[in-house]
């Protein structure tokens, strides 16, 4: 059975890269363009893992993660943060919001898949 | 001395022959898109006398040229008996009004001869060679030379 | 999809982000202090940087990075976006656009310019930072005070890593020999609330070496005291691996803040059995099954049985509650907004164009069908007629809908203009503000694409010649900063674009003298102010005493007028000396269809664009007056208007028709006043599909384009302005480019 990944990123470029990378690695991929859409899609999607950007319009990554964690069904789903911001302060905020781990952009396909493998069974 | 046969190549082997008055001409079959009957053209203001006007060819506006008048012969009096050869000349499509299409020819060997030097400047411009088939004389027309690009790009 | 396609998407996205960036900066420039505006600006640059990094576009990354750093200072209120700051930022946006273009198309970017801007940007970022160090902000990043916390992106941390799909399977070089680590790992409850899983961490650890595990269950309380949310287990692991200690630690990278972890190299290869704990067999194989987490450790089992309210409380942390509630509320409103904004899809332009062509054919076909039914319908079968009317209605609606697909706001073109104003104003040392209005006015994409060039020329002209130098303006009692206003609006089925400057206006004496010198008008010509102003559109007319580098370029306003006319548009100028000039352009909303009046002239059917016609009238013999050798005037409500025989002008007949037997179309042409065009009869009004004559033939003087009528025949569309010009004595000659006679 394919693992399902929900990606949330406002950049079309990054969305396409994620799609290609994840599909090549044998994942099923569903995508959202910002936090709001991410929360909307989440409900019916039943992903195994979420990969999200931080800087997004409407609802940013922090808000999105908090929203996911508030959802009874997804309180324990692994969430990886995809961000160029590698400094401790941002990471810490993401963790407080409930992020499981992070991937530093520009991501390298191997590291992305590695990180996903690491947090999923 | 004679003029050489201009720019002959392998794909010039199949030709469409047609009649204007008592003369026969031919063009490369590759440049002919279709042959259709005459329909009344809408005249264009300030056009040269050999431009009969434009017709609707499945949504595109197609200019019709009286080939006879263009080659310096008697102007045609278009009728239902005339046909229009729709030809591709570079990026444009032109309708050539002729009296009748007579033949599809395949050139074998060296049946094509150079244009003799008696020709006037006009004939030198468009004639690529002469074919002798069954005592008929057929002049091969170079459409690219007859419709030089700058004429149509005057705008 | 391959990398090239994604790269293409990236550049498309860059264009959108650059537009977003510029419009955001301009909003800030106008005093907008909405945090979302600043965020959007920041995100635009951030996004470009992110994508550029993935493609290894280092120049772009480097510049975007510095830009982003400075923008972050604005975002976090450490830098006030004053006019001066925004000036630097707008210039930076221009350079970012240049770098993007260079990355896509090759070519060069003025390096001195970008380097100078990098310095300015860095100075801005530093200027507001209370400087314990004179160094760049990255140094401050390590400072302990969170207030001074620096840009979110640390210079050292961001390295463009060119992205490649081929890089799977790269093996890292392994360490020298094997080593044994003693690891103790005790997760805290937070670890689970963040979606981490102790069992998975242990699995990953097992993958880098050979290990033995002991589970420490000493902390496990009695069942009734157990909190399903809490963590009670600890593990001691002995791991034999070739990896280094940091690799071992990196397994716990995501979890290290939420657990107690010790990793130390064992003295020797100490056998795991020596550990002073009761070995509890721990089966990791279950993890390889899909059902993994639930089936494995007790902790996981406990979690699945969790108490809902407690879990929710753990997830939404107490100190976050307010934020969370706010976010939820925000989410709600944003959802509504999104629903209102609607969804969009991206479609290849070719597909839309193909659809438009097909609909065009459908319109023609429908008209042909209607006509032949009318011709053959002797007994008036009303049901057929009704059906045809409905078909006509539907076709018209389909056509309108299809046209709407191509409609785009003029915004991108207007935005380009603001850059031109900035650059040219800088070059000539003027201070000019561009105000735009009606940016969301929509018009067909082809029209948008084609107005950019004439508009650019006009803007350059306005900056270079229209607006005075600050000194001259001050001397004239004006604001030293000039204003150029660019507006777009819809008016009666056309788009109206106005360019207003508050400069010196047209110097009529000079224009008139120049026109006399160039023999455009007779020395004794008696021209109205309006006519003099419009002389600047005459071919080859240039008012600048010296051809300037900016608006000279060997082309004049005649070229602008010609391009506008080629689009079926009109342009005129009005000017008030000392107060400025107004250029007004009126353009069709689409280049595909036109509302026309179908008329008969000398046995031919012609279409006259409806927008040009002011009124139609049936001339009475008493209203026609001969004037001079062969001019005729028609009197309309006390004024005299020249009569123009269309058939004569187009050479469709050799003698003038008798006006009383025909119909006069009163038309207004740009800057030329009114004329009465004589035609033989009016057939009706109709929307026609515009067909190019140039595609297979050439431009025909006096004719704007062609169309196909209901009978399947081609009809010509009259170029009213050209016909009016020709009536003023300028002849319609095939050799002469028609529009140039304007």
From TrEMBL, chain A:
Coiled coil: none annotated. Gene3D superfamilies: 3.40.50.2300. It comes from the Bacteria. The keyword Hydrolase does not apply. It holds the Pfam family Response_reg. GO terms for biological process: phosphorelay signal transduction system. Residues 4-120 form the Response regulatory domain. The keyword Hydrolase does not apply. InterPro entries: Bact_response_regulator (IPR050595), CheY-like_superfamily (IPR011006), Sig_transdc_resp-reg_receiver (IPR001789). SUPFAM superfamilies: CheY-like (SSF52172). The modification 4-aspartylphosphate is found at residue 53. Keywords: Phosphoprotein. This is Fis family transcriptional regulator. The lineage of its organism: Bacteria, Pseudomonadati, Pseudomonadota, Alphaproteobacteria, Hyphomicrobiales.
Automatic annotation (TrEMBL), chain B:
It comes from the Bacteria. Residues 12-152 form the CheW-like domain. GO terms for cellular component: cytosol. SUPFAM superfamilies: CheW-like. CDD domains: CheW. InterPro entries: CheW, CheW-like_dom_sf, CheW-lke_dom. One of its GO terms (biological process) is chemotaxis. PROSITE patterns: CHEW (PS50851). Pfam families: CheW. This is Chemotaxis protein CheW. It comes from Pseudorhizobium pelagicum. The lineage of its organism: Bacteria, Pseudomonadati, Pseudomonadota, Alphaproteobacteria, Hyphomicrobiales.
TrEMBL record, chain C:
GO terms for molecular function: ATP binding; phosphorelay sensor kinase activity. It holds the Pfam family H-kinase_dim. GO terms for biological process: chemotaxis. It catalyses: ATP + protein L-histidine = ADP + protein N-phospho-L-histidine. The keyword Membrane does not apply. InterPro entries: Bact_Chemotaxis_CheA, CheA-like_dim, CheA-like_homodim_sf, CheW-like_dom_sf, CheW-lke_dom, HATPase_C_sf, HATPase_dom, His_kinase_dom. Keywords: ATP-binding, Chemotaxis, Kinase, Nucleotide-binding, Phosphoprotein, Transferase, Two-component regulatory system. It comes from the Bacteria. The keyword Kinase applies. The modification Phosphohistidine is found at residue 46. Residues 593-729 form the CheW-like domain. Residues 389-591 form the Histidine kinase domain. SUPFAM superfamilies: ATPase domain of HSP90 chaperone/DNA topoisomerase II/histidine kinase, CheW-like, Histidine-containing phosphotransfer domain, HPT domain, Homodimeric domain of signal transducing histidine kinase. Residues 1-103 form the HPt domain. Its EC number is 2.7.13.3. PROSITE patterns: CHEW (PS50851), HIS_KIN (PS50109), HPT (PS50894). GO terms for cellular component: cytoplasm. PANTHER family: CHEMOTAXIS PROTEIN CHEA, SENSOR HISTIDINE KINASE CHEA. Involved in the transmission of sensory signals from the chemoreceptors to the flagellar motors. CheA is autophosphorylated; it can transfer its phosphate group to either CheB or CheY. This is Chemotaxis protein CheA. It comes from Pseudorhizobium pelagicum.
């Amino acid at each position: 059975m394919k693992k399902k990944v929900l990606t949330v990123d406002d950049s079309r470029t990054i969305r396409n890269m994620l799609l290609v990378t994840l599909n090549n690695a044998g994942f099923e991929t569903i995508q959202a363009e910002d936090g709001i859409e991410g929360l909307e899609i989440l409900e019916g999607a039943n992903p195994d893992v979420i990969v999200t950007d931080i800087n997004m319009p409407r609802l940013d990554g922090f808000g999105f993660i908090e929203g996911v964690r508030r959802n009874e069904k997804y309180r324990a789903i692994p969430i990886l943060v995809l961000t160029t911001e590698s400094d401790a302060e941002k990471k810490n905020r993401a963790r407080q919001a409930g992020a499981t781990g992070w991937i530093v952009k520009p991501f390298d396909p191997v590291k992305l898949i590695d990180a996903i493998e690491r947090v999923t069974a | 001395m004679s003029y050489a046969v201009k720019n002959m190549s392998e794909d010039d082997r199949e030709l469409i022959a047609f009649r204007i008055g008592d003369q026969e001409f031919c063009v490369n079959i590759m440049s002919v898109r279709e042959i259709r009957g005459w329909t009344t053209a809408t005249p264009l203001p300030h056009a040269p006398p050999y431009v009969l006007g434009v017709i609707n060819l499945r949504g595109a506006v197609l200019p019709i040229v009286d080939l006879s008048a263009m080659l310096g012969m008697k102007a045609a009096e278009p009728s239902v008996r005339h046909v229009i050869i729709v030809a591709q000349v570079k990026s444009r499509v032109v309708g050539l009004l002729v009296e009748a299409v007579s033949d599809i020819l395949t050139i074998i060997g060296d049946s094509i001869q150079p244009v003799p030097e008696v020709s006037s400047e006009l004939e030198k411009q468009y004639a690529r060679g002469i074919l002798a088939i069954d005592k008929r004389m057929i002049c091969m027309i170079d459409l690219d030379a007859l419709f030089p690009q700058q004429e149509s790009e005057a705008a | 999809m391959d990398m090239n396609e994604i790269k293409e998407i990236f550049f498309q996205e860059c264009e959108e982000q650059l537009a977003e960036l510029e419009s955001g900066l301009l909003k800030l420039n106008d005093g907008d202090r909405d945090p979302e505006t600043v965020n959007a600006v920041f995100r635009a640059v951030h996004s470009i940087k992110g994508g550029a990094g993935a493609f290894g576009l280092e120049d772009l990354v480097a510049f975007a990075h510095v830009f982003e750093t400075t923008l972050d200072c604005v975002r976090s209120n450490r830098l006030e976006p004053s006019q001066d700051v925004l000036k630097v930022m707008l210039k930076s946006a221009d350079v970012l656009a240049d770098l993007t273009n260079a990355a896509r198309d090759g070519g060069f970017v003025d390096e001195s310019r970008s380097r100078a801007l990098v310095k300015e940007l860095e100075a801005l970022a530093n200027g507001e930072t209370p400087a314990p160090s004179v160094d760049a902000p990255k140094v401050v990043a390590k400072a302990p005070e969170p207030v001074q916390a620096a840009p979110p992106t640390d210079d050292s941390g961001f390295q463009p890593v060119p992205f490649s799909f081929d890089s799977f399977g790269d093996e890292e070089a392994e360490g020298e020999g094997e080593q044994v680590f003693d690891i103790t790992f005790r997760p805290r409850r937070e670890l689970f609330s963040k979606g981490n899983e102790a069992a998975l961490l242990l699995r990953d650890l097992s993958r880098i070496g050979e290990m033995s595990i002991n589970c420490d269950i000493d902390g496990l309380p009695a069942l009734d005291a157990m909190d399903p949310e809490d963590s009670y287990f600890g593990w001691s692991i002995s791991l034999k691996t070739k990896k280094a200690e940091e690799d071992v630690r990196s397994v716990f990278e995501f979890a290290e803040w939420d657990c107690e972890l010790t990793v130390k190299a064992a003295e020797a290869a100490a056998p795991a059995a020596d550990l002073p704990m009761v070995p509890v067999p721990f089966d990791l194989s279950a993890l390889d099954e899909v059902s993994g987490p639930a089936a494995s450790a007790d902790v996981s089992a406990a979690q699945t049985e969790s108490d809902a309210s407690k879990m929710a409380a753990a997830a939404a942390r107490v100190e976050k509650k307010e934020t969370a509630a706010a976010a939820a509320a925000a989410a709600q409103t944003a959802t509504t907004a999104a629903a209102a904004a609607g969804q969009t899809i991206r479609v290849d332009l070719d597909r839309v164009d193909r659809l438009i062509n097909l609909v065009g054919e459908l319109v023609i076909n429908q008209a042909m069908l209607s006509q032949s039914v009318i011709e053959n319908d002797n007994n008036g079968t009303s049901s057929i007629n009704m059906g045809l009317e409905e078909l006509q209605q539907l076709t018209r609606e389909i056509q309108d809908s299809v046209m709407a697909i191509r409609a785009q706001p003029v915004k991108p073109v207007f935005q380009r203009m603001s850059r031109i104003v900035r650059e040219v104003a800088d070059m000539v040392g003027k201070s000019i503000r561009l105000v735009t209005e009606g940016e969301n006015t929509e018009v067909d994409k082809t029209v948008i694409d084609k107005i950019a060039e004439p508009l650019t020329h006009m803007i350059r002209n306005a900056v270079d010649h229209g607006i005075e130098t600050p000194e001259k303006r001050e001397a004239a009692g004006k604001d030293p900063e000039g204003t150029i206003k660019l507006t777009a609006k819809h008016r009666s089925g056309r788009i109206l674009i106005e360019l207003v400057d508050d400069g010196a206006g047209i110097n009529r004496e000079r224009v008139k003298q120049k026109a006399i010198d160039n023999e455009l008008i007779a020395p004794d010509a008696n021209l109205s102010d309006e006519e003099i102003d419009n002389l600047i559109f005459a071919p080859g007319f240039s008012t600048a005493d010296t051809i300037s580098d900016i608006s000279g370029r060997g082309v004049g306003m005649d070229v602008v007028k010609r391009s506008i006319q080629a689009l079926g548009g009109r342009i005129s100028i009005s000017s008030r000396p000392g107060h400025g000039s107004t250029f007004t352009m009126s353009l069709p909303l689409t280049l595909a269809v036109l509302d026309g009046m179908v008329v008969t002239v000398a046995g031919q059917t012609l279409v006259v664009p409806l927008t040009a016609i002011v009124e139609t009238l049936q001339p009475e013999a008493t209203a026609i007056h001969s004037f001079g050798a062969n001019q005729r005037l028609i009197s309309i409500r006390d004024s005299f208007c020249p009569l123009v025989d269309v058939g004569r002008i187009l050479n469709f007949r050799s003698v003038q028709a008798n006006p009383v037997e025909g119909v006069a179309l009163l038309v207004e042409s740009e800057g030329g006043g009114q004329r009465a065009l004589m035609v033989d009869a009016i057939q009706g009004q109709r929307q026609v599909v515009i067909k190019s004559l140039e595609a297979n033939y050439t431009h025909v003087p006096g004719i704007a384009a062609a169309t196909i009528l209901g009978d399947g025949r081609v009809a010509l569309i009259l170029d009213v302005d050209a016909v009016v010009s020709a009536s003023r004595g300028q002849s319609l000659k095939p050799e002469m480019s028609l529009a140039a006679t304007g």
